[in-house]
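Tokens for Tropinone reductase. Go.
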Amino acid sequence: MAERESRRDNKAMDGRWSLLGTTALVTGGTKGIGHAIVEELARFGAAVHTCARNEAELETCLKKWEGMNLNVTGSVNNAGIAIWKAATDHTLEDYRHVMSTNLDSAFHLSQLAHPLLKASGSGSIVFISSVAAIVGMRNISAYSERWISLPEALHVNGRRDSNKLCLPGFIGTPINQQLLEDKEILAAESNRALLGRVGEAARWRRWWLSCGGQREVFRVAAEEKTMEVDRERWSLMGAAALVTAGTRGIGHAIVEELARFGAAVHTCARNEVELEKCLQRWGAMQLKVTGSVCDVSSPTEREKLMERVKSIFNGKLNILDYKFVMSTNLEAAFHLSQLAHPLLKASGSGSSIVFISSVAGLVGFDGICLYSATKGAMNQLARSLACEWAKDGIRANCVAPGCIRTPGNEQLLKDEEFVAKESGRVPLGRVGEAEEVAAVAAFLCLPASFYVTGQVIAVDGGRTVNGNV
């Protein structure tokens, strides 16, 4: 069994985790989730313009942000509303008012912003929707129906722009203040949430990034601009992680991403020569990574691997990242999760399991029916573990990559006809990179994502929402 280790103390965030030099428009920025998003984007270095209906509130916020040295401007505008009524009590005027203010304005603002986003070369639209758009809820029927198809349509038509839909659950914001004061509603809603509590706007804004107060922050200066990122929420210092298949492709990228955020990482691979080469590279990069040879398709070797991890990390584990290929199986994912459970539980709340699945588990493909079946099962395993292990402080999520440039796809990507055909199915018009998958996996491990569990997140350039192919 090969084993090596390299140590590091810290690392400032690299350019992929910065918004320096970018511009942003955030509607409804003086309260709740919008307010939190303004501050998060500005801390990452973006120049932000926001709008609100209340001029006095806007002025108060602008003064606050100026005092925080955040680059934020603002103007008065009406962004959106919610009317809480039973479906039978809504008038036609209520319906039209909600639709025109919320959905019409979202579409029209997207139209107006399109030339500016296009001119930037890599624009991004993020809609803040609601879980009310995907599950039924009492008294908000008109509010609920407004969102679900717009981002998919824009994503396909916009091609090179990135469009996302964020669906917050019950979040503690000013608009929910009256509901939060009702102890019966609060208890019922907290009971429905796997994590047993109402969400926080300050946590939701991190998901919006798709990534402070008086706590320690990272400071990164570039071209006389500064970004300040809350180190407590955007750091894995002190965390212990196990990443399987870490010497190639997506697994390799995840090892480096987690280690750069400060985690102590142990990885495994079947090829000892490749593992030694990677460990030497990581040592030169001053990343804290250990490794061992292991075939995770073997139950005995999985048990030995977990005993080694238990020894290295003193009986605790914060992160389990599992990726399997066709030669291994779903059983290994389930068994490793079982073996890791006591270590994840011992580390306290915030532990995270991230399965690397595939869009093949979401849509059908020719020639890979068994592979697709295992990926679909893995997506469901993540949802089930999220429900069952939330009480132990363990979250479980899946990242489902599309066609990604990795050594495993090397021969396939040499076929120009295949690449052209696949890129044509992807709204963003290209094959993805392993680092782009690793960034999402890392986010799901960070404290910034502590209210995200049971989700399957596609990193596919929009392929799975493209109805034109």
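The longest strand covers residues 394-401.
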